[in-house]
Amino acid sequence: LITEVVRLASSKITDGMVNFQQRFVFPVHFGGPMIEHWWNSNLTFQIYTKKTPQKKPEVIGSASLPLRTVIQSELLSFSNQLPVQQENGQTPLGPLKVTIELVIDNKDFTGVNTKLSSSTQHNPPCALTSPNKTLSEPGQYVTCTKNPENLNQIHKEAAKKVQNLVLPKPKSPSPVISNPSTFMNVPSHNLANQTNGSTKETSLLLHVLLMVPDGKDFITGESDKQPPCNVYLNCKLFSTEEVTRSVIAWGTTQPVFNFLQVIPVSLSSKYLERLKNNVMVIEAWNKLRSPGQDKLLGLVKLPLHQFYMSFKDPKISRLLLDAQYPVVAVDSYMPVIDVFSGHQNGSLRVFLAMGSSDQIMALQRLKNEEGTLP
Question: What pLDDT, in 10s, does the model give residues 4-16?
Fold first, then answer.
């Protein structure tokens, strides 16, 4: 869509499903030429895999969606499974779950995270990701989402301009499976002691919850007239090689990301030492119109030393893991600092916690009740 290409990687595979829990929003100006373009174009999803010790991902299959399907639907949306065909043959690799929705305003995307979290709990072997390109293990499904409210205006305009291209009474798309839960599912194997032999080290299976609901006071760092920011975030999660990317908040100084990730970690003494006096880095970028010209607005550094202090003593860590809620390292606005000038170019509201799966789920329920969960 436009010049935007999104790549998303994940190694989180559960019961044959690859889970991403990401949402991407793209602005589309729906005039006559754009409607004609959608009518005659396909949206292609390429599936990649990379195994150790490969340095470059290898394409293994692809799926295609005619964009006319979206504008033909009564609610201007599509939610269904696409067959993924092997790259060098007709052998099916599995279904790719795709949800694409059009809305009048970015505000209409509220509640999408509920759909994302619920769909991962009920769908067959596939997983959640984003449009265009996907870099991951096989078996993903892809989403570029909307809320179907207030869409009559767009549908009438599309029908008027395209005339006979849009069907008068098309069938409604398959609905996204709803679920009252608005928090991310955490693997059920709560706390695991992984011991290989009596002389080997024991490690704990814990989970890290990272939430970045929104930001404020973003500027481009230029001294003269400030153009609007199109802010998105890149985050490398602990020991993984995966870089997770947020949605793009277009044309605003007060971006809303609703970014949420739950990361499993095996907490050993070696891993604890890596947390000591260390930080997790979130990159804030300004998306520009020209491909490959995005500008780094700054870095947010999240201290991890609190986790080291909390879990280095086995006696204390046992007491902490018996508590109702996890250990919280960050719960505040964090500055976005320009790496070249040292100036602050904005702030992100960040929540970072570590604990057992039960503690993370309890905290997500609490945040959901407070209305602060993305």
Answer: 566 766 666 777 7
